[in-house]
């Protein structure tokens, strides 16, 4: 099992403003029952309650529920990612995700502790990180975007996390605002959800990776059904940086109403760095975005090169450059 260094976890005031644990637990059970159509006695909830106090639901999707729990044996707060299906394929995917995350130890990547299989469903026990998804953060930001200095600090952490997994020949393949957690004080960040991740097949005899991830946040070549790659991770990471700086997605991408055909068309347009708040971003910042968001994947820098960029290293800011 992957090892996690024991730390003191302070539950933020955010919890006090949310629903109490006695109200949240029935909701978690209700969600599991509704989405898996099994009896409550057959769900993982009853088994989990023997070892964990489930406090609240942090998020839910079509394949899993993520909940905040307190482990009874040491009172530590953890995140539990529970699959909503007993399909053996889902169990296999959860096992693959766990095996990948076991090899990942980086301060800006959420850590995994263990994989439980309960009543035919998988439960990933992970580090709990108090914060919001980047998606929710941007929706709640009054001005619609974040100050460049804040974005610069968060981006350095995000680039570092992606550069680390690329150094291990691992491709995330689903980098998007929903899979990036940001602390309430906007100083800390975690990359999460390795469900779509895969080892890089480039350079060996295995089949190239299929396109994966969430289409609206995918690189142009992935939108057009080319294999995922480290270069596509670079593009999707830069898209998240663009969103923080501008408050909207590039290329007229719309999370709500862009069809695949429209996306295939607009994904070939060069990303504009002239309109809206992106116009006010420093020349160094825009230069890095232009390289990372190139429609030509061969023109994009590697993540290692990005990490040596002046804007990421803060050198240009310390010298007072623009």
What keywords describe this structure?
three-stranded antiparallel sheet; disordered N terminus; disordered C terminus; 2 domains; single chain; 322 residues; globular; Transferase(Phosphotransferase), domain 1; alpha+beta; five-stranded antiparallel sheet
Tell me what you see in this structure.
The protein is α+β, with helices and mostly antiparallel strands and 322 residues long. It has 2 domains: 13-127, Phosphorylase Kinase, domain 1; 132-318, Transferase(Phosphotransferase), domain 1, CATH 1.10.510.10. 36% of the residues lie in helices and 16% in strands. The chain is built from 13 helices and 10 strands. It has a 5-stranded antiparallel sheet with strand order 1-2-3-5-4, sandwiched between helices. α6 (148-167) runs antiparallel to α8. 38% of the residues are buried. Mean pLDDT is 83; it is low at 1-42 and 315-322.
